[in-house]
Amino acid sequence: MMRRAGEFRTVPALLAALAGWTCALPFAASAEPATLPAIFPAPVSIALGTGTVTLGTSVGLVVADGTGPETIAAVRQILESAGVETVATARRVPARLDRTYVILGTGKAAVVRAALGRSNTVLDGHDEGYTITSAAGNGGGIITLAGHDADGLFHAVQTLRQLVRRPTLPALVIQDHPAMPIRGTIEGFYGKPWSMADRTQHLDFLATVKANTYVYSPKDDPFARDRWREAYPAATLASLGTLVATARRNHVDFVYAVSPGPSVCFSDPADAQALERKFAALRGIGVHRFYVALDDIEYTKWNCDRDKAAFGPSGADAAGVAQAKLLNAVQANLVATDPASHPLIMVPTEYYDAKETPYKAALRKHLDPRVVVQWTGTDVVPPAISIPDARTATKAFGRKTLLWDNYPVNDYAQTTGRLLLAPYARREAGLSAELTGILSNPMNQEAPSRVAVTGVVAFGWNDTAYDPERTWQFSARALAGGDARAEAALLTFFDTQHMAPTFGSQPWQPQAPRLKAALDAVRDTIANGDASARRAAITDLSRQADALADASDVIRSGTVDPAFAEQARPWLDALQRWGRALQLTAAGLDAADHGNRAAARYFADARRIAAEAAGIQTIPGATRFDGPIKIADGVLDRFVADAPTLIAVR
Length: 650
Prior knowledge:
It is a single chain. The chain is of the alpha/beta class. It folds into 3 domains: 10-176, Chitobiase, domain 2, CATH 3.30.379.10; 182-478, Glycosidases (TIM Barrel, Alpha-Beta Barrel); 513-645, Hyaluronidase post-catalytic domain-like (Methane Monooxygenase Hydroxylase, Chain G, domain 1, Up-down Bundle), CATH 1.20.58.460. The chain contains 20 helices and 16 strands. The protein has helices at 10-18, 69-81, 110-118, 150-163, 196-208, 234-249, 269-283, 305-311, 316-337, 358-366, 387-397, 446-461, 468-479, 484-496, 513-528, 531-555, 562-567, 569-593, 599-614, 636-642, and strands at 29-30, 45-53, 58-63, 86-90, 100-106, 130-137, 140-147, 169-176, 182-187, 213-216, 253-258, 289-293, 345-347, 372-375, 401-405, 435-440. The strands form 2 sheets. The protein has an 8-stranded mixed β-sheet with strand order 1-2-8-6-7-5-3-4, with helices on both faces. It is globular. Mean pLDDT is 93; it is low at 1-30.
């Protein structure tokens, strides 16, 4: 719950504790009023005090023993990016402040406990939780980043990253922790897998949004699916080891998934041993969390005669029993061989809906209760997920499920030609009480996937305070590097890729709602027949067209992540042409409104450029289905086609 200024009783105590700290250097204390910062994901609680703190050019850094080097390095980088020229290591905060000090550590450290005690603030006691306090005194200030554990402390640093983007920090207290214990992504799409560079960038991104899980499960890795019994080549294993180290540095659990379903013999001890060997090799490079995927396979036939002898004729019930036997053996081996191991995760063959079936009943009865079960919701691509849906899944599988949300994945036919850039929405607040966590299945395009993934992770962190639109805008701001013009261009582009299809005929998110509202307003105004209003509407349309036409160049100008611009390249090419077509359409409407016969030429040129735009194709092989790029389809193309009929040329 968000608290208003003055409601948090410890802020005055914090300020009182700092009242005795004085210094002749006035630069660190500011007379600017404190304003509530926007933090994403939304914190559990944030309360303002009085006054603000300026970092200045020199900051003292007090680091508690046991703080990870990656956390210290992140704080230094954040402070330097904020304009701090000198970050001086200090053993303690002096009684008389000479600058602003940052205290960094977990609640186990005496220096951190003392800082919280001086402010009469208690440490957030949840796993991955953290507390931040800041207050200004005469000549300086103090900022305390206190983690319940090392992960919580790292999350606190990500909040600091957002706080210091403002010129001054308000005096405040933040208490925060995640609602769901598992939050992140599963690279589980079909088609071209991400490159190791993509994965590295993705892990760095996941850290900034307080995710804690990445599942390596590319469908096209032969050594994880078709050739799962075989050992990885040494070079590939080394590359995965580098990736695991990157995940660890970012406080993200690297989960290795294997998909043996197409060929496994469930009753053969040799196959269980093959899985154990595979996991042992991955454990050797630092992996401690494993996953067995049994999705997208048949249970109408066995892969070996031995299974028929062991479990009887093939079918749903027998498959559930057979799978449980294998998974239980793997789970037992993990516990026996790796004290640091987490519970095994599995995705069942019936991974969607929550209807009672013989297969689910068999899993419920026979599967080790420690094994985590994934579930995609009410459908493969569900239009919405409610609390009752999740409760029904809990009943069906005999445990709370880990949600595999197939958004924004674009590896199925209905997504051909699309990037899925709508905000993450229509998941009910309160699901955190019914799920063990949430993983997003992203697109083949890593950087554009961050738009939706930011929302998925923010929902998993604090589903009750999650705001889809504000988080969507935050994702644009982050990709734009804080540049307002680039942020606006990205939001313009996102709107043209707003459609979120399902496996059915109806999308669960509409196409281009902002642009559609603007174009509908032009249609309505022209239909009204008022001359002055009509001309104003056409002028506004020209501005809209300019924004569309210019957005691609702004996005490519250098402030937006270059990976985003490259992976969205054909969409940006098409957007630019569609923007030009709309500019010509606006010119045609203006000419028609003034009785100028040049209108016909403008409209003809608009149709020609629109046809060029509609002919642009996806990058060959980048996604599972290649095809023509779609830009605000059903909205922009329809308006360009209809415009010549809206005003008769006199």
